[in-house]
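Comment thread on ticket #2218

A.B. wrote:
> Attaching the input chain for the structure job we discussed in standup.
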Amino acid sequence: MDARDSVIQLIGYRVLSSFGGARPHDHAPLRSRFGWAARVEYYNRLGPMTLSSEVLTDFAFRLLTAIQVPQAKAELVAKSLVAANLRGVDSHGLQLLPFYIEIILMGNIDIHADGRIVSENGAALVYDAQNGIGQWISKICCDHAIRLGRAHGLSLVVSRESNHFGAAAYWAQRMSAAGMIGMVMCNASPLVAPWQGKDQRFGTNPICMSVPGSDLWLLDMATTTVALGKILNAQFHGRATIPEGWAMDSEGAPTTDTQSALSGLLMPLGGYKGSGLAMLAEILCAVLSGGAMSTELGGIRIQGQPMRTSQMFLAIDVARLLPLDEFEQRMKSLVGIVKSSRAAQGFDEVLVAGEPEWRVEAQRRRDGIPVSDGAWQNLVQAAGKLGVAVPG
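C.D. wrote:
> Ran it. Output below, let me know if you need it in another format.
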């Protein structure tokens, strides 16, 4: 079996993850019913694809509408995933789309749900996503956070019973584009043991903050050393090992073996500190919203049950505290002070949060977005099954 074939295989409409090992499969139905096996082989031989963001967004949109996702929602999901690829955050880009397609076709997401307001008290709002598409629910919640932030100076919106929303940065930036300091958190599928434990109790539980202004400062970090998607990305690229400190095996021992990491545990960021931050996010998202907590969650790689994730959106109206242009100037000054530090041995310069991604985005807007062999194969296979034309 080809190494990439063991990552995710399409059987009928399903994408099977490598958790638990490869499963028996038969590509004969694909050959006889759709005649796409030869085309898949052709694209595999081409190696990594490099395509523009516009082409990839259109491709993702057509894949989603092929499974009956309403156009406005399909457009939003496609844009949010490709936006992550543009920034070089491929772990939260198009490699997720086959998983989305799988769980939608399994009925794990209600593509028609818009959710509802459970309660609105002053600057605080609780939203029931009703198992809707994570990106669509996040757009609604961001807009509520902006609305309430303008009315009250700051706002807190929490959603429950939602789904994967892509990269948190996309939503924090939506709020900062409206002149707000935007903070976003979510809980996620339990893949991380608590400090001193070896059983999965937390997700990667990201914490994100974006400030108004052009490319000033954008922090988007998992509370693990890396997100699970980075280990999957290593597998998509055929890498047998990962850097030290990324993961542990199933017994809680550190490992650099990619397969052991995928069947094991993600490493908390900074040990007990990362474990504490993960629980902080769990409290602000799940406990506060009345949503599913810890082991009660499903996930995009867990078949047969809704994800049930909770999300938090905090908006601070900068203009309530000082003029927006003054805030931006002060941010530029702070960034300048930080970057004025002499570079340590082995580094050419000091970078601040968001800076590496903005540089990658400029390059990828100019040269195109490279898609790994494994991710491209999965997209091509999905397209073949759904009768969607493949770009390139």
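A.B. wrote:
> Thanks. Noting for the ticket: The radius of gyration is 21 Å.
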